[in-house]
Amino acid sequence: MAKKIRNFAAILAISAVVGTMLLILVFLLPVGPMRRNVEKSVGDMLKTGDEIPEDAFSKYLWKNRETYTDAIMVQNAIERLPDKNAYEHAMWMYHYDLEEDVWTPEDSLKAFCESHENVNNMYLHIYARYWHGYLLYLKPLLLLFSWKHVVWLELAVQIALMIWVLITAIRKQNAGVAAVTLGSFLFMKPVLVLISLTMSVCWILTLLAVEYMLLHHDGLHEKGQYPEFFLIVGILTSYFDFLTYPITTLGIPLCCYFLLENDRAWNNIKKLIGFCASWGIGYAGMWAAKWVIADLTLHTGTIKDAIWSIIGRTEAIGGRPRMNGGFYVIGLNLHEYPVYMGIAAGILAAVAVGLMVMIIVMGRWKNVYAQLLPVVVTAAIPFAWIIAVQHHSALHARFTFRILSVAAAAAITFIVLIVKQAKSSQKS
Q1: Please, which pLDDT band fits residue 381 given cuts at 50, 70 and 90?
Q2: Distance in Å from the first CA to the final CA of the chain
Q3: Would you give the distance in Å from CA 403 to the centre of its chain?
């Protein structure tokens, strides 16, 4: 335990230092070419109300794309105050907006590009409580490509990663991992994830985590390094994500672990608790490191701001009792799914429950409860997250609903495990 604590502390400290240095470096890049590249496609990427496309597919994308947060990310990439140095930018994350009290990112980005650096009619905001690690790749890409081309490049990367996971899973004779990973992706409104800078972050991190597990599972398991692995996944999620649907980077890899390692019930439960704790320490610890670094060096007041933000994000919605509000917000998130996805989820749940009933009737419960218990707990993680962070989950239900894909991943995992056990029973 003492060794693990030392490892965790060292990894967190190194991550915070390296993360800070990398942000400083990208803020040294010239923003002039980035602004010109953004200007080339800002009109196409941020359609106005009188420019609604005519064909059905384009209209669907126009209505559902998460341009609000994408616009914030892009403007953060091209912001540069002449009287502030790179370190101050990395810590404060300055952002001009047309409004003083509310955010209007799409209109503000357009105005920022059209005004050619004239910000006299705009208000200076800060976004210091996030790391904004996505700038590590977004700024260099915008230096070379337009915003539209960056989106296409990111789409290509996601498709390539999904193919890589599928091929590796088949080669490792564990196609169930691919089925769980890619099957759960269907419950994220996948097209919108593929074409959004914001929504693709957690999905890319999830794919990279699953791919690493497929390639290095034996080594991670034998050396007892899975806690450090989930710690690093939590750190990377905190660093790169904009608080969208972070739990997927924990829940989907957990499901894949149960497919890769068939341990007994209590062994899996202990590991489930340990891995969740590791991810949580990485996620919260890395986030807190940004607040501490910013406050100690620049007296930004980020710790106070972050604490009040946490209080606001986690408060019960609409004055309701917490559990009552939690169920209400779960309903809001479920409502984001189109009808056909609700039917698909119902079928998936019915198959899982049907298999469970069949197992009980056949008297094989003792053989499968070891696999069922950790999967059920994993399926409950997104619902617990929504209840705990219900104000944020209600305010941003249009993208937080994607954490429910973890429950879909757990259901698919259970079905795959039962099918695998049935096949092994037939062979024996």
Answers
A1: very high
A2: 40
A3: 8
